[in-house]
Amino acid sequence: MTEKQKFTSYEKKLIRRYLIWCYKTTKESFERVERKFTQLTVDDFIADELKSLKGKMRSDLDGPIKEFEEYMNKKEMSALSEKFADPQRGVFNKEYLYLKIRLGAIEKAVVFFLGKKELTAIHKLYEEEMTKRILQARDHT
């Protein structure tokens, strides 16, 4: 489909909601993998800060620091296996590659049916929703 059809206002609303749903569900699945890598970058920084402690404070925290490093190693192994079929060669898992390509296709569909401004608006809505979920989450407190 390369030509734009004429849609009623009602049809445009349905298309918009469907595209938002497609974007949200695909982006969530994609980010479930991607965020592990960005979290590891932050975790590395935190681990370095903890390991830079000196004296009694450092020795008192050796156990928790070691547990944190083990947690990081497990997260890294999980992230690599979810993203790559062959990490050494950089070959993506089929599921990951599908999500990556699908997300790009959904963004193109948003631009095609609704325009570039609407894609920017959907990006903003998604970011606001994810931040709101984090701030309201009670399961990690």
Overall description:
It is built from 5 helices and 2 strands; from the N terminus they run αααββαα. With 141 residues, the protein is mainly alpha-helical. The protein has one domain (9-136). It has a two-stranded antiparallel ribbon. A hairpin with a 4-residue loop joins strand 1 and strand 2 (91-92). Helix 1 (9-51) packs antiparallel against helix 3 (62-83), helix 1 (9-51) packs across helix 4 and helix 4 packs across helix 5 (116-136).
Gap between N and C termini, in Å?
Answer: 48 Å
Which descriptor suits the 3D outline?
A: elongated
Secondary structure tally: strands: 2
| Total domain modules | 1
Evaluate the radius of gyration: 21 Å
Largest sheet: 2 strands, antiparallel
Q: Give the helix/strand class.
A: mainly alpha
Portion in beta strands: under 5%
Question: Helical residue percent?
Answer: over 70%
Number of helices: 5
